[in-house]
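Hey, can you fold this one?
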Amino acid sequence: MKGRLVPVLTVVLALLALWYAAAIPVNLRESLTAAERAGVAVAGGTAAERQEASTLRLVALNPGAALGGAWSQERPRLPAPHQVAAELWSSVAGEAPTSNRSLLRHAGITLGATLAGFVAGSLAGVLLAVGIVHNRAMDLSVMPWAIVSQTIPIVALAPMIVVVLNSVGVQGLIPKAVISAYLSFFPVVVGMAKGLRTPDAMQLDLMRTWNASRPETLWKLRLPASVPYLFASLKVAVAAALVGTIVGELPVQRGGLGARMLAGSYYGQTTQIWAALVMAAALAAALVWLMGFLERRTLRAMGAPA
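Sure. Predicted structure:
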């Protein structure tokens, strides 16, 4: 555990340092304008001239104003890490879980649709993979269409799904779950099909020697061999399901992390957007960790080294 902690903390600290450094040039011109309005002498010409000037030159000419203002703006273009942390604290610990401003409430809405879509998409992917492995016609016809389906941009498809389902009276969680399932089924199909085909000819011949039927071969040979591939694809699928849910929440705007991000963009609240992004990243990390935990427990129960 200690051996893993030091590299992780090193990477986190390096990312935070880069984040703070990036906030300076991104927020520089607004910082200099605010300092000039407060009566501070600013080098580099007028506000119009500074728009054309080099960012590095402006930082060198105004180090105090650049550093002080870039990390403390009310509506920065790129909020500093401590501003995002403060927004997270206020929207998580400072709000009631049922409040519309509570990030926990929005995360719960997103999580519910994500899990519903992930379960549906994963089941569809497993069943489709079984059909592809056992039926050559499905392999030649269904798999190419599954690949083509993933070339459609989800940002274009999501509003169409929401509008069509709303027109027939289907609202709430289901449209977002459909979008989530659409993104999550493909990794499961590919990974599961690969896993089901891992038994070699000698193992399959042995099952025939034992007079095993195709369902018995599937249950006792192909499925156990596919477990590592299944969980590897589930880790990808659960992250894709979360992305699909967030994209599906953008046109709905009835709660969820996607709606929270969109509301922040409407009102120029970049810290709100970044806080929702950090919450989404934490949610994705927790879901992927859960898949890894289930994988270790499943492999240990099967007698394989986890």
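The CA atoms of residues 196 and 231 lie 13 Å apart. Let me know if you want another pass with a different chain boundary.
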